[in-house]
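Lecture 7 notes: from sequence to structure.
We start with the chain below.
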Amino acid sequence: MKFEAVTIKDIAKALGLSTSTVSRALRDSYEISPETKKVVLEYAREINYRPNPIALSLKEKRSRSIGIVVSEIANSFFSQSINGIESVAHSKGYNVIIAQSLESYEREVMSMQFLASRSIDGCLLSVSTETKDFTHITDLHARGLPIVCFDRIIESIDTHKVFIDNFQGAYDATTHLIRNGYRRIANLSNAENLSITRERLAGYRKALEDNDIEFDERMVKYCPHGGMIYDEVDKASTELLKQKPKPDALFASADKLTTNFMRYCKANKVIIPTDIAVIGFSNLDLTELLSPSLSVVRQPAFTMGQIAAELLINIIESKRAVTDFENRILPAEVFVRESSAPKRKQPVLKEA
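Predicted structure tokens for the same chain:
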């Protein structure tokens, strides 16, 4: 049996009124008496009537919906960002449509085209690791679709951008390891083309430089899909730990890289922090409950989502074309736990 939503015609027929009278009553028109409005509104509530969003969008030339394109909803950072976006969208009367790229350029292109075909009022976007050609985004933007970038931004597009101070977060994490006695610090990185990768790698390198540690390219390994494919993390981790001398600490520059490196260590009997200390970006809520508890760089994901949504809705609702755009840079916070404990000094063996 096909579901059919209640319409104004159904209300009019049930109450013996014209559809125009019911429509005006629902819009609180001065042309309709208070008595008639009361009857119509009470009956509408009783049958759980909801306005047809398609009809409203045709009338208002707005759908009151915004699109969100992220790599993966299961990623704790993006799920928290989406919660922030939805909190603002809901309060301002907007629905959200969420699409996952799963770090695929092709899926991202299809998602953007699908959302645009559904007449969304605007889109919030964090690009996939595979995306190097932004034509599918810049074309929609040039045709008037409001787009706001968050986290993984596109430098070449003229719009609002919301992201954290990736350089400082990586710098602070690496400096923390150095202060705890570690000198051979490896870096497990996201895809090379992403803005967050470049900024976090720059922070890591600067921390080494400021502490007179020579940068070694062999200590940096990239995972093209940001840790979503475990085999990439497994391969990169194996290559790092086969080096001689081995790294004594690791800074992971993405959420899934951090947690999947810990999974790798457990599977390969690598003891953290005895064999290698670990700190990395992660917004997973249970990092303090892991064994050992995980030192992390945590992003204000919920706040980032809120700000991005507010900026997008401001563009949508502006009476004039918006030409002044902002780069909103939020601070990251380092939480120090057991996985990056101070390096133990090896006992000096006496000769027999």
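Points to note: Residues 113 and 295 are 39 Å apart (CA to CA). The first strand starts at residue 65 and ends at 70.
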